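Researcher: Excuse me, tokens okay?
***
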Amino acid sequence: MSFKNDFQLYRILKMNLKAVIASLLATGICISSGGSMAADYKKNPFTLVYDGAITENVKGKVNIHPVTYKLNDLDISANVYTPANYDANKKYPSIVVAHPNGGVKEQVAGLYAQRLAEQGYITITADAAYQGASGGEPRNVDKPAYRIEDILGMADFISQYSGADTARIGLLGICGGGGYSLAAAQTDKSFKAVATLSMFNSGRVRRNGYADSALNTIQTRLREASAARAQEAVGGAVLYSGDARLTDEQIAKLPFDLYRQGYEYYWKTYAHPNSTFKYTTSSLLDLMRWDATNQIELIQQPLLMIAGSKADSLYMTEDAFAKATGAREKELFKIEGATHIETYWKQAYVNQAVEKLTQFYGKTL
């Protein structure tokens, strides 16, 4: 299955189901899934939508601190989590958490940031530039160089935060943020330990399609991305890819768990108004020539890669893990029975991931 108009996904209601599925295969939306009860961002003072989210800052417990800082002249919106009984005069190991493609800091990245803060870490998660509540125009640009810079910017900010120990900074990347974290850690050695959860190689998927299912449309999609950029350059409308509106029946027929469960998350159970599937079509010019595993042998820091044993995205984690030959020590930890998106919300799987991350950071930081 293939498609010829990647940038017209925003017209998804006009497309038949076959075209919808084909478009998603090549677009490779990175998404997550929720539970049975819907979370209402309006009911949380910090608009957090994950299970067990902080609703107020209580003395002696984990606290959340919304912050804004400048990165390349853009305002970046972030949340810093401090551990229980935080004392600014003490030194704490710190962890940067990079969110999935399409996700925002109030969703799964916030969940893991809060859970790691419960283990004694200062953590930070920020909306990527051009996305979420962060600045940047046009909206939803998704270029690897920008996403890597977002990660480095979080590290810059948290290293100046009161109580943060600059000698003990760790990195956790989730889904697309996992691929970008691998790239960031290749050259930035301020990260002393690197972990990924359900890693998603955005370049490979945007280029080849999910599960390498759109190899025969690469050149067509590159021509369309080139045309989209040319249109922007002369002041024309910004074209978008990945913006899909499907019925429940259409969702049920999608070929991958990542998509079926993901739509429920973003539209129903853990929806947040700042998250979106779409990205500028012109971003594909950068995405399709990039790969999370390029130069991955430069990672010499300890590396932990976590993925569900039943994840249909597992092939990306296994590929990156095998190529990370420079890591002094590395481990691939599979959560038995979990799909890609279940590692984001299902309590039993989240608990296993947090326990493994705590052991890893405790040893390496």
Observations:
- The chain has a mean pLDDT of 90.
- The domain at 34-201+296-364 is CATH 3.40.50.1820 (Rossmann fold).
- The longest strand covers residues 164-174.
